[in-house]
Design goal:
By secondary structure, this protein is α/β, with parallel strands linked by helices. 47% of the residues lie in helices and 15% in strands. It is globular, with a radius of gyration of 21 Å. The structure holds NADPH dihydro-nicotinamide-adenine-dinucleotide phosphate.
């Protein structure tokens, strides 16, 4: 039976990889967490299963017809009391709901921006997995966190690791707190050792077969191109008030060190653990306490060695493109993100080769003027414009 200290959680993107890991952690702590709302886009059967198992107060699905189907199935399953809504309005409502104190933002891509911002603007504890939201709207997003007194906890394992290694107070410039640099680790993805010539023929299934992490298809492709690390570099700049020059990307193929913080006195603090997203999710849910996450204890004798290498940006140009977009500022990261989402979907649909992902993103950025990202309207407008441009360049094969 939930007690008065039970945290009520909205889980945006419940049917995804992060969503499932979050459900797993919550299932282990039934007294501490109660699911208020769960959302999905198209996976109605999976959402139905979650509703039957967890009995949330509310559920949100993409379309009206899927919502109707879900209501009917829930009635038949004896859970007609779950309030089902649909579309963006439904997502915004469950992000803002007064009953909720914690929102896990685990929708993939730009679609997560408005519901995540709604949670921030309602002063919630926001567990941020949806890195694309922060990449698109960086300054506006962080200003909203401060203005509305939201608590922002990074769930991306690297940022979660950095958060754990930083002093509790770290806003206002890293050097003020004795931090000299952030070391962002990268597994290198499945093609780290592949010769460039072989990358042209990579298939979506090969790109999605990550050596260490089990993730959704979009982020798996981003890991394979290293755009994921580029998006994470931008994310880290906003989260930790850092410049791109303060962030060093370190390829660490074992994915045991999840990232590090270097201090002025020469100390380097690392956060380690098995590559399992339940660790950062549990940290975000329970912060500043710690809870069981169901993760295997780290066996250093079995791992026996940890390797570190410098990234090769000539073979993985997405990392450079992301750093340049952050340096350009304004709407450039939103353009990068939009073009990348179009390119990755085209690759997954087998309309674009693996190496063309970076070429299409590069061409979209080159054909775009950077504007000041001074309002959400500007950011959303740039997102839509960059998608159209990337689609056109893709159609014309001019990249
Ligand atoms: P998945 O693709 O596995 O899941 C995405 C979730 O978002 C699903 O619930 C999906 O619903 C929902 N969704 C997709 N499109 C929309 C839309 N237009 N409107 C509303 N909901 C939508 O993604 P992941 O769980 O892998 O990733 C989620 C986020 O977390 C991403 O931003 C990713 O970068 C980040 N992340 C993921 C990690 C991982 O290990 N997977 C690690 C670190 C960060 P449906 O099932 O119906 O399509």
């Amino acid at each position: 039976m939930p007690s008065s200290s039970t945290r009520k959680v909205t889980l945006l993107g419940a049917t995804g990889s992060i969503g499932r890991s979050t459900l797993d952690v919550i299932a282990q702590q039934p007294d501490a967490y109660e699911l208020y709302a769960v959302t999905a886009h198209r996976s109605r059967e999976a959402l139905l299963d979650i509703c039957l198992r967890f009995a949330p107060t509310r559920a949100v699905i993409g379309t009206e017809s899927d919502a109707e189907w879900l209501r009917m199935q829930l009635r038949e399953g004896g859970r007609g009391d779950v309030d089902v809504s649909h579309g963006e309005a439904g997502l915004l409502e469950v992000s803002r709901a007064a009953e909720v104190d914690t929102v896990m933002a685990a929708i993939i891509g730009a679609a997560g921006l408005l519901p995540t911002l709604a949670a921030v603007e309602s002063g919630k504890r926001v567990l941020l997995a949806n890195k694309e939201a922060l990449v698109m709207s960086g300054g506006l997003f962080m200003d909203a966190v401060t203005r509305h007194g939201a608590t922002l906890l990074p769930i991306d394992s690297e940022h979660n690791a950095i958060y754990q290694c930083l002093p509790m107070q770290h806003r206002g410039g890293l050097s003020r707190h004795g931090v000299s640099r952030l070391l962002l680790t990268a597994s290198g993805g499945p093609f780290w050792k592949w010769p460039l010539a072989e990358l042209e023929a990579v298939t979506p299934d090969q790109a999605c077969a990550h050596p260490n992490w089990s993730m959704g298809r979009k982020i798996s492709v981003d890991s394979a191109t290293m755009m994921n690390k580029g998006l994470e570099l931008i994310e880290a700049c906003w989260l930790f008030d850092a410049t791109p020059a303060q962030i060093e990307v370190v390829v660490h193929p074992q994915s045991i060190v999840h990232s590090m913080v270097g201090y002025a006195d020469g100390s380097v603090l690392a956060q380690m653990g098995n590559p399992d997203m339940r660790t950062p999710i549990a940290y975000g849910l329970s912060w500043p306490s710690r809870i069981e996450a169901g993760v295997e204890p780290l066996d250093l004798f079995a791992i026996s060695r940890l390797d570190f290498e410098a990234p090769d940006e000539s073979r993985f140009p997405c990392l450079r493109l992301a750093r340049e977009a952050m340096q350009a500022g304004g709407t450039a990261p939103a353009t990068l993100n939009a073009a990348n989402e179009i390119a990755v979907q085209a690759f997954l649909d087998e309309k674009l080769s693996f190496l063309d992902i970076a070429r299409l993103v590069d061409a979209t950025l080159a054909a775009t003027e950077v504007r000041a990202a001074d309002s959400l309207d500007v950011v959303l407008c740039e997102d839509a414009r960059a998608r159209q441009l990337a689609e056109r360049l893709l159609h014309q094969r001019s990249f």
